[in-house]
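Complex 325.
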Amino acid sequence: MSKLKINYLGLSLESPLIVSSNGLSNSVEKIKLMEKSGAGAVVLKSLFEEQILLETGYLLKHNDYPEAEDYIRNYTRSNTLDNYLKHIKEAKQAVKIPIIASINCVSADDWIEFAESIQEAGADALELNIHIIPTSKEYSSKDVEQTYIDIVTAVKSKLSIPIAVKISSQFTNLIYMVERLKAAGADAVVLFNRFFEPDIDIEKMDFMNSNIFSSADDYNQALRWIGMLDGKTSKIEFSASTGVHDAEAAIRLILAGATTVQLASVLYNGGIEQIKGFNTAILTWMEKMNYETVDSFKGKMSYKNVKSPAIYERAQFMKYFSSLE
Ligand SMILES: Cc1cc2nc3c(=O)[nH]c(=O)nc-3n(C[C@H](O)[C@H](O)[C@H](O)COP(=O)(O)O)c2cc1C
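Predicted structure with flavin mononucleotide bound:
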């Protein structure tokens, strides 16, 4: 399988397929299975900023909403900071593949001190899962974007391990944003996170859960943006997330410029062992196309390497509007 080797975040990975942050990695036994099945690395489930602030006492001093404290305490009871650090250490002992820790954050507050403990526990890299839902008309787009930059700058000043930033697609100018994240110290950008979205039951007149899993045609947005960013930003690595349900989607995303491709929903639906088959299918395709390494086809179809890059900039179904009835 050495033809699948790739460097991501300064780490040597045996495969570009990595397990994205999700609950499956809460178990060391499952992390072992991920390694055995051929995952290049594992991103652990996110620790939450609120959880860190609560446990380090910050929230108790600064929280104006006692009910929020109860909520966070209950929500995070099973996943204390000590448990998280212990889990990193146990995972590192159990497998050789890189273990990437993850923190979900919305501010550059005191939680950043804690990031150092994650590094000390042995995490090979840190993925910052940043998603700010603006809820105030006083908070401008510029303010929101600056918070992302402040977080990355602050974390980078504390840590020596590489940092990936996992974001959503909801930016007015993603190219400008990624360029700023890179300048602030991000080593990679993960495109895109997928979120809980509220839904409404029209019979019960109540809220209900939307589907937490992606489907197999959800990867195109990441493909467009990775393809475009690869030609338009300074050198930074991209990791694709959302909608990768087979080897073909992974190959397409690497062709667009992704260094790694992350998997979550497909592993919940069909099992962790599928990674092995995906790796084999990528190798079979490489053989057919005469590629010796992943690097030799990475970005081959990105904005900077194709004859008609304008395809990445096209968004309207112009042709179809005139022919579809
Ligand atoms: C059950 C579940 C839990 C998740 N937890 C996290 C998390 O803690 N942190 C995070 O950054 N992403 C989390 N995600 C998002 C995934 O890492 C991934 O970005 C998203 O599911 C899209 O990829 P997919 O189409 O392969 O599922 C979670 C996804 C699922 C399904």
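The radius of gyration is 20 Å.
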